[in-house]
Amino acid sequence: MSADLTRSIFAATRPLAVLLAASALLAGCESLSPAECATADWRQLGVQDGRRGRTDRAADYYESCAKAGIAVNVAVYRAGRDQGLQSYCQPANALNEGLAGNSYEGVCPAPMDQNFRNIHGIAWREQDARKTLARLQREQDQMQAELRDAKTAEDRKRTLREQLARSDRRIEEARYAVRDASYQLDRLRSDMRQRGQY
């Protein structure tokens, strides 16, 4: 197949590819089937979304249920979501969500938001520092294995030795970051215990 023909096929199918990609993105939005719309307990659905720290999805539900001719009780959904957020926005959950590496969508009510962000941020940084250290150690192990391999060319071995020297420095920095983040996390846990939040 000639390069010109390949380019013309790509140009002709590009709009279709863009449309398919957009459809896939839209499909990722929260939607309910007509049967789910008909039997939905809007309060319970709101509570579940709130407990999971989800943003307000009333508009998504409204759109999918309107297609089936079913009304969404937005006020009841939002009251349920507010109830669920009271559970999600607790300090102990902020800690757990951060340690799990889950992002925070800024859903907590104003009086709880800043505390949630602070706790979540400290916990998230600790798990992120550990992941970074583990990744750097894996990369270093791979370089060392390649360096020991008799089949590796001498030029490549020289490059690997230079990369390993840099890797040692990055790993030491990552270890320091883990120690610092762990110290901050320990202080946070101690403070939370004193307040009865953990």
Question: What does this entry look like structurally?
Answer:
The chain has 198 residues and is mainly α. It folds into 2 domains: 28-86, no CATH class; 89-198. It is built from 8 helices and no strands. Helix 6 (91-99) packs parallel to helix 7. The longest helix has 41 residues, at 154-194. The protein is elongated. Mean pLDDT is 87; it is low at 1-28.
TL;DR?
This protein is mainly α and 198 residues long. The chain has helices at residues 3-27, 34-39, 42-51, 58-66, 74-88, 91-99, 110-148, 154-194.
Topology:
Elements: H1 3-27, H2 34-39, H3 42-51, H4 58-66, H5 74-88, H6 91-99, H7 110-148, H8 154-194
- Count of structural domains: 2
Q: Counting H and I runs of at least 4 residues, what is the number of helices?
A: 8
Low-confidence stretches: 1-28
Radius of gyration: 25 Å
Number of DSSP-assigned strands = 0
Biggest sheet features:
none
Order of helices and strands: HHHHHHHH
Instruction: Tell me the structural class.
Output: mainly alpha
Helix fraction?
over 70%
The fraction of residues in strands falls at: under 5%
The outline comes out as elongated
Distance between the termini: 66 Å
Mean pLDDT: 87
List its traits.
mainly alpha, 78% helix, 198 residues, disordered N terminus, elongated
